[in-house]
Amino acid sequence: MANAMQNIGACVFDAYGTLFDVAAAAAHCQDDLGGKADALTQIWRTRQLEYSWLRSLMDEYVEFWQITGDGLDYALAALGIDDPSLREKLMNIYMRLDAYPEVADVLNRLRAGGMKTAILSNGSLKMLDSAIDNAGISESLDAVFSVDSVGIYKPHPSVYQMAVDGLNISAVEICFMSSNAWDAAAAANFGFQVVWVNRFGQPHERIPGREEHVIKTLAELPSILGL
Prior knowledge:
alpha/beta, six-stranded parallel β-sheet, 6 strands, globular
């Protein structure tokens, strides 16, 4: 393929929104939420990310599981929902979020093509292991990197450096995938070759870093790598 990415030794994936559907928890609770599922997903995800950035700036690191719960508590309060059993149900589902339908096949194709594969995520190892097991993709991954190892969240450069050190290859040999525009930009600014999985039709962020390719789903990735 003429425009295939060159000199890639590993494919590294963000987890939430890229491999795993962050809307799945609310989607599975639509009857309980009474028409507020979409609003809950949006507020929950926004606060989850904002709290990770704010805690990083405040030097007040806690695991992503607590941040996820804090974001959900804010979302429930914003929507006027006071239901402890529903909160517990939503959190339990978040621990084993659905993978997007193309994920397993794409990982298998990458491994068959000789690529190393890994996850690099804000998620705690417990959260990631649960989602990976639920999706049945553990055998298709060479490594899983969690920010727990460095105690700060993306987009801090030390997070991206974990993949370089853990896979023992240079940043430019890593093809990094994220559905988050800010994560894609930051990873490109760090030095990865980036494929932005723009599942949600987002505009580009106005921060340093620009991806090599934009795709709508991971199903398009193997062809970009010439596989």
